[in-house]
Amino acid sequence: MYSNLGDSGNRHLLLFFIILAAWETGSGQVHYWVPEEAKHGTFVGRIAQDLGLELTELVPRLFRVASKGRGDLLEVNLQNGILFVNSRIDREELCGRSAECSIHLEVIVDRPLQVFHVAVEVKDINDNPPVFPGTQRNLFMAESRPLDSRFPLEGASDADIGENALLTYRLSSNEYFSLDVPTTDQQVKPLGLVLRKPLDREESPELHLVLMATDRGKPELTGTVQLLVKVLDVNDNAPAFDRTLYAVKLPENVPNATFVIKLNASDLDEGLNGDIIYSFSSDVSPDIKFKFYIDPLSGKIIAIGHIDFEESKAYKIPVEAIDKGLPPLAGHCTVLVEVLDANDNAPELTVTSLSLPLSEDAQPGTVIILINVSDQDSGANGQVTCSLTPQVPFKLVSTFKNYYSLVLDSALDRESVANYEVVVTARDGGSPSLSATASVSVEVADVNDNAPASAQPEYTVLVKENNPPGCHTFTVSARDADAQENALVSYSLVERRVGERALSSYVSVHAESGKVYALQPLDHEELELLQFQVSARDAGVPPLGSNVTLQVFVLDENDNAPALLPPRSGGGAGALSQLVARSVGVGHVVAKVRAVDADSGYNAWLSYELQPAAGGARSPFRVGLYTGEISTTRALDEADAPRQRLLVLVKDHGEPALTATATVLLSLEDSGQAPKASSRASTGAAGAEAALVDVNVYLIIAICAVSSLLVLTLLLYTALRCSAPPSEGACGPGKPTLVCSSAVGSWSYSQQRRQRVCSGEGPPKTDLMAFSPSLPPFPGSENAGKLQDVDHYTEVG
Where are its TM segments located (predicted)? Predict the structure, then answer.
C-alpha cells in the first residue's frame, strides 16, 4: 500500500517509460531492396513483423504508409502485413544517374502514435541498351584528304549505372577506316575514324559503315548507328541543259502560279559541285521578272503576273544554271513563251431602279428595273445572253439590243415573301464562256390586306362575384400578319346595353395590351352571364378589324344571409304568433318558418334548427331540418306553459355559412276555449299550407328540369370548345362544394358549371349530383311518406 502522493509519482514514472519505449521503437529504420521493373505484387518485406507490430492491430491503430512524391509505388497488405510492389518502378526515372536510389517511407500508427522510417533500395538491372544520338551519321570527306586523318564520332550513352553502363565499341569490316577508341584514362578524347586508304570518288562515291556499342550487363545489350561516308568531288564539270531553246504556248489571263515549263540541267560532278541553281540571266528585262518566276532548285517556271495577249504576244526569257562549286560554273538556254488569245473580257451589267420598293398589290407587267449589258470582246465572245434566278415572280423582257427590263410576272404576297434577291446573269458566247452577275434586292412594300385575327373567335371566362374593382379578368390577343402600322393592333369594347346600363360601366379593355378589367364588383344575383365583344383593329389605311366574343360567367359567392318571410296572413316581418290547441297529437304541424336566400346552389340551400330553451327546459316542439315546419314531439299537457317562445336558427350551406334567427310565439289554448274564428283560420291556414305544398312540388320539378337543361347545355358547349386553350383571368373560380343528401330528396346544383376555369388548371368538372332521401319520416306524423314542403327560394337562389 502506498500513499496518495506515492501513487501519483509512480503513475508519472510509468508513463515516462512507456513514452520512452515508444519513441525508441518508432525511431528505428528498416531497410529493404527491390529490383527495378518488378511486377505488380512482388514481395518486398514483412514490414509489420519487422516493425514489431501485430497483424490484428494494424487496422485499429490506423496503420498507414506515407511517401514523398511517389506514394503509389509500394503498398502494404493490412491482412498479412506484407509490403509489395504496387506499380512499375523505373530506377532511371526515379533517381536518374545517381548511384544510390531509395524510396523512403514513413509508417504511422496511432494509439499510441508511432512513426517508423523504412528505406527501400531500388537495384539497377540492365534494362536500357546503349543509345546513339541518331540512327545515322553522315560524314563528308573530300577525296583529297591525306592518310591517318582522324574524324571524331559521338559515342553512345547508357541510362543504367555500374557495370551495366560500361560500353565497348566495334566497327564493321572495311578497307578504308579503323576505329580509334580512347583508353579509360583518355575519356575526354572522343571516338574517331582514322583514314587508312586514300579515297577515290569515281571508284566509291559512298561508304556504308556500322558502329556498334555493347554494355557489360547480363544479358548484354547493344546499340548501333549507321555511318554514311560521302566522298566529295572536285568541281571540274559545268551544268548543261537538254536544249538550248525551249518553246511553250501559254493562254492569256491564266491564274497566278500557273505552271509554264520545267527546265532540266545536269552536272557530272557530285555534292556541291553537282548542285544546280536556276535563275534568269542578269540582263533580263524587269517586265519578265514581274510576270514570271523560276524556282532556283527545280527549274520550274510559273506565271506570277497578268499575262495579256493585247499587251504582248510573246516573251523571250534567257535562263542560266550555276553549280555550287569553287569556282562556280554556269550553263545557258533560252525559253520562248508564245501567248494565246482567250475570251478574257466578261460582260458588264448596268442596273437602273425604277419601282423600288414594289407594292404587294402591283399589277403583273409592272416594270421594276432596267438592265444594260455590254462586252468588250468581238464576234462570238461579244454576244451576250441574260438569264434570271429561277422561281421568282419576275421575268426579263428584251426591249432593245443589249437592253432588258425586269417586269412583274405574277401577283405578290408580302406576308409569304417580304424580299426577293434577284440575280441577273449575263453570259457571252466565248469558249469557255464568261459571265457576270448583278444582284437586285426587290423589297415588297406592305399593303393593309390582313385584319387582326385571334387564336379563336370566342372565349369563356369564369369570374367570382364581389371581385375588387379593376380586377384583371382576361387578355385578348390578336395578331396581324401585316407590317409596321398595318400590324399595330388596338383593342376596344363593342359597346352595347346590358339591361339598363352601358357595357362600359362593367368592363374596360386596355387599348394596347388587350387586357380586360372588371370596373366594378360583379353581382351573381344581378348578372350571371356577361357576354360582349372586343374589337381588334389595326392602324392601316383603311383600318381592318375583327371581333372576339367573351362569355364572362359570374360565379356565386355566399354573400347573402337568409331572409325571413312574413307570415302568409299578411302580417309584418316580426315574430310569428300562432294559437295551438292542447289537444293536438304528436307530430302535428303548428307553424312554419319561411325564409329565402338571394344566393344560388348550396349558398341558397337553407336548413332550420331549433335553439335550446332558456334554462335547459326541453321543448315539446321541433322544427323540420329543411322544411321549417314546427311540429309537436309529444302530447301537450297542463304542465306546459301557456305561452311558448321558440327561436329558430335559419342557416345556409355556403362557406362560411350565414344565418338568421326567427322568433315564433305559440299560445296554448284548451280545445273548448278556442273560438270559432280561430277554427276557421286554422282551416284556412291548413288549406293554404296544402296549396303551398302542391305549388312547391311543381316548383321543385320545374327547377330540376331547368337546371338539368342548363347543365346539359354547358356540357355540350364545353365538349365543342374542349380543344380551345384555357382562358386566363386574375379572378379565379369558386371552390367545388360537397353535396349532401337531404330530407327533401336530394338534388343539388352547385355554381361550378362545366366550363374551363379562367386559370386554365385542371380538367373541367360538373357538379350536378342526385341522392335518395336519407331521413325517415317521423312516427305518427300525418305527413309521413309525403314529400315535405320545400320553399322555392330556399333550394335555388
Answer: 697-717
